[in-house]
Task: inverse folding
């Protein structure tokens, strides 16, 4: 594997890279994806999450690779925001409630609409979209709620920390494992014709229940003071529930998640306990 450096805000850089590498497949996972931070960096979020997609597509065409290179765009369940129906499918209307979700909607429309009409039909380019619901693993960033919880549980279990501050404990999400979702991305790119798919588990879990599952993995129950909901951590506009309908992916891709929420939490907690034992300051 060779690592190349690039920037979704730099068209020249993208053209140079794609021309040099001549890729068979491009998976665009680049985004400013932290919802809370996207409120503070709204302009940057738009530049990367929406215009970045267009820059890659134009670079593929500039390099005359539109018949060779397949393109995958990673979209997000944050598109649905204030949900219009439960569960959410490929046909559910979008109602984003954050700059991240809003500009991912821009990216989604660039691919689904512009590509459907122009890139897919006029240029014959293979371009597909994955609307991925929350996917986690032990490598999740420390500022995201799932990893924040599992790190805190590990530290509390080992006597390194007394409590953790979180936002809305009643928010519900459809959490899956990144391994399963990466497999789904690859399967989309192996189709004869490009299409767009919701990838999810079809089950929803509240933040509060995720915390309870995490503590159960270390043989503890939540007691008063372990977890504190803090108003300053809340988003300016909250998304109460996200629950995906992945029936299209199951039918057309023959894909199904292998991990359930308990398996996911078990793995994340175990890895963070191992990490904290090795490095209590981590």
Result:
């Amino acid at each position: 594997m060779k690592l190349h450096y690039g920037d979704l805000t730099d068209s020249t850089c993208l053209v140079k890279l794609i021309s040099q590498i001549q890729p068979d497949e491009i998976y665009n996972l680049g985004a400013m994806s932290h919802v809370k931070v996207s409120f503070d960096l709204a302009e940057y979020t738009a530049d990367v999450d929406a215009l970045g997609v267009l820059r890659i597509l134009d670079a593929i065409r500039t390099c005359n690779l539109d018949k060779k290179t397949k393109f995958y765009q990673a979209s997000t369940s944050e598109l649905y925001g204030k949900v219009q129906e439960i569960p959410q499918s490929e046909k559910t209307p979008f109602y984003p409630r954050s700059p991240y979700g809003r500009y991912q909607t821009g990216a989604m429309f660039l691919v689904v609409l512009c590509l459907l009409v122009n890139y897919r039909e006029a240029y014959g380019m293979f371009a597909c979209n994955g609307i991925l619901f929350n996917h986690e693993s032990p490598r999740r960033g420390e500022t995201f709620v799932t990893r924040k919880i599992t790190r805190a549980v590990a530290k509390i279990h080992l006597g390194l920390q007394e409590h953790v501050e979180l936002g809305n404990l009643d928010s519900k999400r459809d959490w899956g494992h990144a391994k399963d979702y990466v497999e789904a991305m690859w399967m989309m790119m192996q189709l004869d014709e490009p299409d767009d798919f919701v990838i999810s588990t079809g089950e929803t879990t509240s933040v509060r229940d995720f915390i309870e599952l995490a503590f159960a993995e270390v043989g503890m129950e939540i007691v008063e003071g372990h977890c504190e909901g803090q108003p300053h951590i809340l988003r300016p506009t909250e998304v109460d529930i996200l629950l995906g309908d992945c029936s299209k992916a199951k039918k057309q891709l023959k894909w199904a998640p292998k991990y359930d929420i308990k398996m996911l939490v078990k793995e994340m907690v175990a890895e963070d306990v191992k990490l904290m034992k090795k490095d209590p300051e981590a």
